[in-house]
Design a protein that fits this description.
Elements: H1 2-12, H2 14-20, E1 34-36, H3 39-50, H4 70-73, H5 81-98, H6 104-107, H7 120-134, H8 141-158, H9 161-173, H10 176-179, E2 180-182, E3 185-187, E4 193-195, H11 197-208, H12 215-222, H13 229-240, H14 244-256, H15 277-297, E5 310-313, H16 315-321, E6 333-336, H17 350-353, H18 364-375, H19 390-393, H20 402-410, H21 413-426, E7 441-442, E8 445-446, E9 451-453, E10 456-458, H22 461-470, H23 473-487, H24 496-508, H25 513-521
Antiparallel strand pairs: 1-2, 3-4, 5-6, 7-8, 9-10
Helix pairs in contact: 1-2, 5-9, 7-8, 7-9, 8-9, 11-12, 14-15, 18-21, 20-21, 23-24, 23-25
Length: 546
């Protein structure tokens, strides 16, 4: 829809341009970011630079979500001394694999002179080429020289060129310049601060692909093309046409929907014998495949993800959903829940109802809280430390259903305020147990799935999905999450009108995800900066960037 709008506006001139579409509000932007690579970004970079066969065998320190996203929490992350040791050990492991026989012929584009223990020219070439992708910019001459000198000393000690080069690579992989995304600010012709081309390239690549910039994007930055919005638009169109764009979208929704929590999800096997590690992995994959199919392949209305009955199914998931899911290959098959089935919308899939439950039982409160925070961007306060959970958890209670037990919290003045925000939503999902399996009764009592959200009442989980679809806070939340995810920082006060602009554009484009992402990626606001950063000694360079 917007494509035709732009064509019409261009043809009719500046007068009709005002009528055809609103202009982007000006913003002062925010501070440039310094953020730690997330685990998924680290893994993607290693796979893109060296190949998927290079194993990243490590556990990463957790990043705390800020404003609902790990992408923002990464800007406040710290690395503990033990974390530093693990990064060094991981760097050593990767470098050893890269330089191993069978890999180095493919990954090192030159060979040392015959009989030479060290070849400085070959080492410089490898360090400069590889460092360009790891550091997301060209290395200064002094940086290349320092890594080459380290490789040369190690080669002399080990008596082997590739063993020495592995030390140089290890140092790059353990460098703050690789582990942290440090944006650089320069001044434009008017003396105003702006992100340099390489920082813009990195923002784009992390947003659209969740990895380091490729050669075409780095070359565009080097030529100065990313200083101009026309150049940015060309790169955005190219990147969104790539298969890597799906990877970026999956990474965004993994962060927004907190799907990384599946890594620590536990279920009581005695209560839920059908729930396994394979089920947990497939539940995460199911929602991502559903979103990709609806929003990228079919380019459907984003709001329809809360009412859709179409999804995909695997064998392990079929056991929990209690539906046939056989295929000749044993893989994924298209599946649609019939009309009248409680499964309607991603909020009824295992990825939501099982994830936001306790190990041994369901939780209307956790589910209601997740809908408020993840899908509506509404903060729910943490419970006070004085809350007594004994009444709700008492196994001898005469209350047989969660609804009856939660009445106790709703009448307690210290609990009622927050529980009224969460419980009426989560109770609509009580026909799914703690593993996400469908049920009609709890302890012999018929489950009442009626509920309410923001003044809209419904009778079941399907009604909840319809209420979410029609709630204006739902697309507004996606806009907020997408913009902050792209910028890698919280919303600034000067950007409130900007968010309203993106929301209006999103609605005018029939709530198409592709259009929203394109609008954000090609907005002046995404690259605006308000202050020049104070660089620390850790990140200062001996020479300016080239």
């Amino acid at each position: 829809m917007k494509r035709f709008t732009r064509i019409a506006c261009a043809a009719l001139g500046a007068l009709l341009l005002v009528a055809c579409g609103s202009r982007e509000p000006s913003t002062r932007g925010g501070p440039p970011t310094l953020r730690l690579l997330t685990e998924s970004q680290y893994r993607n970079v290693i796979a893109d630079v060296f190949g998927e066969h290079i194993e990243v065998a490590a556990r990463f320190d957790p990043i705390v979500r800020v404003e609902g996203l790990l992408a923002i929490g990464a800007g406040r992350a710290t690395v503990t001394p033990f974390g530093v040791e693990r990064y060094i050990a991981l760097a050593r492991s990767i470098a050893t694999q890269v330089m191993a026989e069978g890999n180095r012929e493919l990954l090192v584009s030159c060979q040392p002179a015959q009989g030479a223990t060290f070849d400085a020219q070959c080492a410089e070439r490898f360090i400069a080429q590889t460092g360009r992708y790891l550091f997301r910019r060209p290395l200064a001459a002094a940086e290349v020289a320092s890594f080459v000198q380290l490789a040369e000393r190690a080669a002399a000690t080990r008596g082997d060129f590739h063993a020495g080069l592995a030390y140089g690579l290890q140092a790059m992989l353990a460098s703050p310049e690789f582990l942290f995304v440090a944006e650089n600010v320069v001044t434009d012709k008017k003396g105003q601060p702006q992100l340099d081309g390489y920082s813009r390239a990195t923002r784009l690549s992390l947003f659209l692909w969740n990895t380091t910039p490729d050669e075409a994007l780095l070359a565009a930055a080097e030529r100065g093309e990313l200083d101009d919005m026309r150049g940015i638009r060309r790169q955005v169109e190219r990147m969104m046409a790539s298969t890597r764009f799906e990877t970026g979208v999956r990474a965004f929704f993994t962060d927004m929907l907190a799907l990384d929590d599946f890594q620590t999800l536990e279920k009581d096997s005695s209560l839920y014998p059908a729930f396994s590690l394979a089920v947990a992995n497939d539940a995460r994959e199911q929602v991502l495949r559903t979103l990709v199919e609806m929003l990228l392949v079919r380019e459907e209305d984003y709001r329809d993800i809360f009412t859709t009955r179409r999804t995909v199914m695997s064998g392990p998931l079929g056991l929990v959903y209690r539906v046939p899911a056989a295929s000749p290959s044993g893989g994924w098959v298209p599946f649609e829940f019939p009309e009248g089935d409680p499964r309607a919308g991603i909020q009824t899939q295992l990825s939501f109802v099982a994830l936001h439950s306790h190990p041994g039982k369901s939780s209307p409160t956790l589910r209601g809280k997740a809908i408020r925070e993840l899908l509506l961007c509404q903060r729910v306060p943490d419970p006070p430390g004085s809350v007594n959970f004994d009444l709700f958890n008492d196994p001898n209670s005469a209350s047989k259903t969660a609804r009856d037990r939660l009445v106790r919290h709703s009448t307690d003045p210290s609990c009622s305020g927050c529980h009224k925000l969460m419980d009426p939503i989560g109770l609509a999902l009580e026909n799914f147990d703690g593993a996400g399996q469908q049920r009609g009764y709890e302890n012999g009592e018929l489950i009442d799935t009626s509920g309410e959200i923001n003044g809209i009442r419904f009778t079941d989980s399907s009604g909840l999905g319809s209420a979410l679809r029609d709630d204006p806070a739902v697309p507004a939340c996606l806009v907020r999450r997408a913009y902050t995810y792209a910028a890698g920082r919280p919303i600034q006060r000067s950007e409130r009108k900007l968010l309203n602009h993106f929301e209006d554009e999103f609605a005018a484009e029939d709530f198409r995800l592709r259009e929203l992402i394109s609008d954000i990626a090609t907005s002046d606001a995404l690259y605006a900066v308000s202050v020049t950063p104070v660089r620390t000694a850790l990140l200062d360079r001996k020479e300016p960037r080239t």
